[in-house]
Amino acid sequence: MAQVIGNWIPDAMTMAILLMVVLAIAALLFGDPPLQVMDAYYEGLWMLLPFTMQMSLILVLGSTLASTRFFGRLVHTLSSLPRSEGQTIALSMATTCCLAYCFWGLSLALAPLVAVTYARQSELKGHPVDFPFLLSANAAAGAIWQFGLSASAPLLMNTPDHFLEHVTGLMPLSTTIWAPATLVYLAVYLTSVFTLARLLMPKKARPISMFPESRKLADSTLSAAGKPVEKPPRSDRFAERLEANRMPCAVLTAALFGWLLYHVFVRGGGLQLNSLITALLTLGLLLHGSVLNFTRALPRAVVTAWPVIVLYHLYAGVAGLLEKTSIGIEFAEYLASISTEYTFPLLTLVSAAVVSVFVPSSGGQWVIQGFITSKASLAVGVTAQRGLLALSVGDHVGNLVSPFWAVIAAGIARMDFRTYIGYNYVWVVLWVGFGALCFTFLPA
User: Fold this and answer.
1) Which residues contact 303 (CB under 8 A, 6 or more apart)?
2) pTM of the model as a whole
């Protein structure tokens, strides 16, 4: 299945171009004048400049934060605790789960390294776990970032002047990621996935030593975490000594922390994209300790953001065609016509799952489908929040079953993604089943 998908599904940029062409032709067929279609694309193409910069900073700062020695030592310490195969899988999943809920960038960067470290520590203690299964189990636990503190679509909808504010207004997080339906869903899903992981753990384990490159990565990671910090040689140049000094970094950290306090207690703000970015920057500076360490980590982190810089503008052009021609209204009315209060979440989930194979970005997918979902939800008589939450469930189906994110995780872990992606299809059943039930019948 993974090979078939990989052979037939184009990359995200090519898919965005195809969507643009299809929607432009569809708008013309629905009777929109060519000038109106061009105007819709003109209005849409650059409407996400602030959002693009916000997402780029989130990716870069998250990767920079993940590279700090603090997280390396944390994973090293936790991976030494388990005393059995079951404990290894459970604690590894719990570590990934906590990272993912706090920030999806940490989960993306660290979940494969968590699996590598736990698998090697377990093998050294004489109770090896199946390494591909552990990678997959971590991916299942990390799925909860869709409803965590850095969930792209809910934070965007809680940020003033977002692109759908004229349709939905602001969506407080108490109505999305902290809604009763969401909290119940997370509790039920995590309990089930932890239980199923224990039951399905392969009896004939393939330890990490069977994957030489992964074992080398594990050994180097454990070795680096156990070494004391080496101080750089003292420079004779004043500028270099100043960069290595902790004082400038401490001043900026204090200023950013003051910004966060002012944002919450004076301006009455909450968790939004800008406050998340500020918190990530503050933590990154605090944990790196000096401007020199922080700026050395940035070039390695910047490479994680390159797709977003261009892709989100292509998505914005597609969103403009949906929102400012008759296409979006027609799709919304059709979805509403075949939906009821009880079938709308499931239909939204299924459509999002299909689109997620082509658009490997939660924020990008909401940009494309948000207008239709919001309009259709209002027509059906349910909240736009319910549509957003159902769409988030469908969005992560693509993350679990398509090769895009699996290849990235496997690349970090230095193995072939085909050795573990098959396990992900089991977790999808739980993810979709509980999601459809919770976001159909529980308060949201």
Assistant:
1) none
2) 0.80
Q: Structure tokens of 307? A: 């797709």
Report the candidate in 412, 406, 404 with the shortest Cα–Cα distance to residue 427. 406
Q: Which residue has the tokens 């159909």?
A: 440
Q: Which residue bears the tokens 């019948």?
A: 441
Surface-to-core class of residue 337, CB atoms within 10 Å of its CB (0-12 exposed, 13-18 middle, 19+ buried) = exposed
Residue 225's pLDDT band (cuts 50, 70, 90):
low
User: Please, what is the Cα angle at 351 between 347 and 355, to 5 degrees?
Assistant: 170
Picking from 78, 152, 73, the residue whose alpha carbon sits closest to that of residue 108 is: 152
3-class SS at 420?
A: coil
What's the rounded Cα separation, in Å, for the pair 96 and 139? 8
Around Cβ 26, how many Cβ atoms within 10 Å? 18
Count of other CB atoms within 10 angstroms of residue 201: 17
Q: Give the Cα separation of 8 and 11 in Å (integer).
A: 10
Return the pLDDT at 251: 95
> Residue 36 has what DSSP assignment?
H
- Which tokens in the block code for residue 231? 């101080």
Closest listed residue to residue 364, CA positions, set 81, 80, 52, 53: 52
Say how far residue 390 (Cα) sits from the centre of its chain. Answer: 16
> In a 10 Å sphere around its CB, with 0-12 CB exposed, 13-18 middle and 19+ buried, how is residue 388 labelled?
buried
Residue 341, phi then psi, degrees to nearest 5: -55, -30
